[in-house]
Amino acid sequence: ETSAEQRRFDEIIAADSRIEPRDWMPDAYRKTLIRQISQHAHSEIIGMQPEGNWITRAPSLKRKAILMAKVQDEAGHGLYLYSAAQTLGITRDEMTDQLITGRARYSSIFNYPTPTWADMGAIGWLVDGAAICNQVPLCRASYGPYGRAMVRVCKEESFHQRQGFEILLTLMQGTDAQRRMAQDAVNRWYWPSLMMFGPPDGDSPNSAQSMVWNIKRFSNDELRQRFIGMLVPQAEVLGVTLPDPELRFDEEAQQYVGGEIDWTEFFEVLAGRGPMNAERVRARREAHEDGAWVREAAAEYARKTTLRQAQ
Ligand code: 3HC
């Protein structure tokens, strides 16, 4: 016997409408949204570190200003997403604590190092490019605050992707050393960017339910395919080679088919054993501890202001 609330919820989902914070929702719907939105927010915040590493070493003032703007955007994306997650009942402190104690997931992609400037191009072109493929459908997620946060995020991601492409194009039109640096970065970021879309559909425990609830609109493999289809012509314009010798267009399936992704690497990174996992969590914990005095001062100031207003 389904309750009136469950029937109401089912009607809203069936009509492809929005669930809002005050609406009744099944606990499992709330739980999977807190899971996905908090992890998405953590990804944005941790994602500031690989690029932040090059703000003081950008090759020109223009590149420095663009990179700073991009990293600041990521912080803003994290803020929207933490706020969206808070509408579901989890607090900012709980989410931050989960992240700095190493208990929270965030996107595997940010656990790789950024040894050269060309990484800034590869991250913009590949990582933000993948993020766009993944985030555009999320603008239509059934949970209102999440879908609406994505609209603003996607607009800014497009700038992130274009500036990355432009960095690589500039390098590819430069000296042989610059061309080698760009190709090396593409070689290191290509496969991990495909892993951003999640495990193969057959190994994706959350997909089926997320698709029933109109949270996930396309499967992990479908979006991964779409991303590769987007990359091939752009790689040709750049003059870089995608590091998959088996990549070819399957006329029958009318899509690109490539070599096997190394899922062992994926699950190793998810288990915390990627090249930079410990460093990323340590840096985030340190930033949180270093910022404690600011939070205390702001709280004390707010307390005194309230006291004064009450007198
Ligand atoms: N990194 C880390 N964990 C991952 C992952 C990845 N690349 N891909 C999947 N996982 C985790 C899932 O979280 C899940 O674990 P959990 O149940 O403990 O949360 C498990 O692996 C199985 O994966 P599923 O496919 O079953 O999980 P989902 O249905 O949640 O799909 C997802 C995974 C496609 C990443 C989905 O969660 C999603 O769309 N998330 C929102 C988008 C997002 O987080 N993107 C990260 C990119 S970072 C970014 O966009 C910043 C930009 O500015 C560059």
From TrEMBL:
Domain of life where this protein originates: Bacteria
InterPro entries from the UniProt entry: Aromatic_CoA_ox/epox, Ferritin-like, Ferritin-like_SF, PaaA, PaaA_PaaC
EC number: 1.14.13.149
Key words of the record: Oxidoreductase
Pfam hit, one: PaaA_PaaC
MF terms in GO: phenylacetyl-CoA 1,2-epoxidase activity
Gene Ontology biological-process annotations: phenylacetate catabolic process
Keyword Oxidoreductase among record annotations: yes
Gene3D superfamilies: 1.20.1260.10
Top EC class of this enzyme: oxidoreductase
GO cellular component annotations of the record: cytosol
Protein name: 1,2-phenylacetyl-CoA epoxidase subunit A
Originating species: Microbacterium tenebrionis
Lineage per the UniProt record: Bacteria, Bacillati, Actinomycetota, Actinomycetes, Micrococcales
